[in-house]
Design a protein that fits this description.
globular; 10 helices; 80% helix; mainly alpha; single chain; 238 residues
């Protein structure tokens, strides 16, 4: 049982980050899980637990989802997810680690140093962003960075930003779980870790949502991104 305690604590922290900020569970959990096990084993575990936390969040925010904004992202993500899952099954461990390192480092630097990125882009660009997000998510479980950057460019903010991202992540997670099952990546080991970790990620998500209005989110996010930057460096194959 001791070998399950650390993954359970990791998903608790990941759930707290997602509950507080609206995204980040995959970014937080995958590099830490990768220190404990093969990434190809870790990614499906994280996505299954992601379904738990997103279900909790969706109950709270579904009324604020902007369906017109989320539709292109979801449509683009469907083929992207299946491409990503195929690549997860095909790439070697070092290739996946390198991609994960690039995602973590690039996104952390963006989040820490780009204060505002407003750019008028056609909403049809959302289909491409959804596809890229699906590919990256299928390989690494981290669907967030492309969509969060796109949302910032579009000027989304506040509760609608948080709700719309939650809706997108939930549907994309459904796609990913289906693809992982179809490709035989969900095993008895996956389900064992999921059953142990699910209550912890639920508790973390509820705790994060509770502090959503009271914690200084800007300071909290900066600490998280510095840690992600460090973890990205540790992911680089040597």
């Amino acid at each position: 049982m001791g070998d399950l305690l650390i993954p359970a604590l990791i998903v608790f922290c990941a759930g707290f980050v997602q509950g507080l900020t609206g995204f980040g569970a995959g970014l937080v959990s995958i590099p830490l899980f990768a220190l404990l096990m093969d990434i190809k084993v870790a990614v499906p575990i994280i996505i299954l637990n992601g379904m738990v936390l997103l279900s909790i969040m969706l109950i709270k925010v579904w009324r604020d989802i902007d369906k017109s904004k989320i539709a292109p992202l979801i449509t683009g993500s469907l083929p992207g997810v299946f491409v990503g899952v195929y690549m997860l099954d095909s790439l070697n461990e070092n290739g996946i680690r390198l991609l994960l390192a690039v995602v973590l480092i690039a996104y952390s630097l963006y989040a820490l140093f780009v204060k505002e990125l407003r750019m008028k882009v056609n909403e049809k660009f959302g289909y491409l962003v959804g596809f890229i997000s699906g590919v990256v998510g299928g390989i690494t479980s981290a669907t967030g960075p492309p969509v969060v950057i796109y949302a910032a460019m579009q000027g989304w903010n506040g509760d609608k930003f948080r709700a719309t991202l939650t809706g997108f992540f939930f549907v994309t997670c459904l796609f990913m779980v289906t693809a992982y099952v179809a490709n035989g990546l969900v095993t008895e080991v996956t389900l064992k870790y999921f059953m142990v970790c699910a209550p912890f990620i639920a508790m973390g998500t509820l705790a994060g949502a509770r502090f959503y209005k009271s914690l200084n989110q800007e300071t909290f996010r900066k600490v998280v991104y510095v840690l992600l930057l460090i973890m990205g460096g540790l992911m680089i194959p040597v």
